[in-house]
Amino acid sequence: MKISTESKTADRVRKNARLEARVTAEQKQLMERAASLRGQNLTEFMVAVLTEAATQIIKDGELLELTARDRQAFAEALLNPPSSSDRAYADAEWYRQTIGKSLV
Question: Are residues 57 and 77 in the same domain?
Answer without folding.
Answer: no
